[in-house]
Amino acid sequence: MNFIRITKRDNLSRKNEFLITLLAIVLSIVFAGIILVIFGLNPFEIFKEIILGSVGTGLRVKQTIVKAVPLIITSMGIIVAFKMKFWNIGAEGQITMGALGASWVALNLSPDLPQPIMLLLMMIGAAVCGGIWAFIPAIFKAKLGTNETIFTLMMNYVAIKFVTYLQYGPWMDPAANGFPKIAMFPDNAVLPKLGGVNIGWILAILAAAFVYFFMNYTKKGYEITVVGESVETARYAGMNISRIIVVAMLISGGLCGITGMIQASAIEKTLVYGIANGYGFTAIITAWLSKLNAGYAVAVCAVFAMLIQGGQYIQIALGVPSAVSDIVQGLILFFVLGSEFFMRYKVHIGRNSKEVA
């Protein structure tokens, strides 16, 4: 008789699923604390300072919101793709190309154009460029069956190198005296603030509401979900698989592109090659941890924004590397993904097959 036996669960209640996830998060924090002790750091002080550094003052809260905005919008884009089991790892490139599209509009249209019209055109340009960058791997996947993970990942580097070329070449500001930078945006191309924070937070809320409604209450959202659950079922039902893949990725890339517009307009006020700032990769974590639920994703993104802001704070205040927050993020992901195993399977240990999880 096997000492360890694994069997598939028939079902798991919402309550038990929540408890397993909560236990995974608690264990991730405990193990993060152990690692910090090994490094000679006081975990209680570090965790306290991360919280204070992210929400300790009004200014820090605003900075946390600023970091949550790109995470939320990018996560929404990734959720649409992942629901279809199209593993879009190209959000970094789509953000970058979205920023490029918005920058072209900002730098080439009249600085006397009314600000609302300029910002709307920038957003459209960003969504189109981000969508096109996602459309390329989508059409290859739909028509040739290529591996979307590798394809979208490689396109990140193409986008970054292309913007680098523009920054050091055709788009370099002549007034910068040879310094490789692109001209700053005119005032009418900069996102205004509301409540002390750029209005990107409003766009983030609208993006979350849109994805929630789209995935749960529209025919196309239903088709995307069906394709993700079973391509054969979708095909049997007469769905156009190729069209669904393309539409989903246009939406996914378009949302990521809008993130690029916000970063370029509100944060950098110009275009730089590192404008995505890793948000495209972090959003993969937040989307997955939220179980591809738009509502949960907002809360998860807020927590991760706190970790990012708190990590930067402890680097300045305590001289502790900001990578400490990366350790916490990584362990949360590791334990929560590990908990998925126990949600799907039961583990029996001993000759009497005693169930332990």
End-to-end CA span: 19 Å
Q: What fraction of residues sit in β-strands?
A: under 5%
Tell me the strand order in the biggest sheet.
1-4-5
How many DSSP-defined strands? 5
What is the mean pLDDT? 90
Helical content class: over 70%
Structural class: mainly alpha
Order of helices and strands: EHHHHHHEEHHHHHHHEE
Question: Which segments are poorly predicted (pLDDT under 50) over 5 or more consecutive residues?
Answer: none
Number of contiguous helices: 13
Q: What overall geometry do the principal axes of the alpha carbons give? A: globular
Radius of gyration in whole Å, from Cα?
A: 22 Å
Largest sheet: 3 strands, antiparallel
Identify the notable features of this structure and list them briefly.
357 residues, mainly alpha, 3-stranded antiparallel sheet, two-stranded antiparallel sheet
Give a brief outline of the structure.
The protein is mainly alpha-helical and 357 residues long. It has helices at residues 14-38, 43-55, 58-83, 91-108, 115-144, 148-168, 200-217, 219-229, 231-236, 241-268, 279-289, 294-317, 323-344, and strands at 4-8, 193-194, 197-198, 345-349, 354-355.
Description:
71% of the residues lie in helices and 4% in strands. It contains 13 helices and five strands. The protein has a three-stranded antiparallel sheet with strand order 1-4-5. Strands 2-3 form a two-stranded antiparallel sheet. Strand 4 (345-349) and strand 5 (354-355) form a beta hairpin. 42% of the residues are buried.
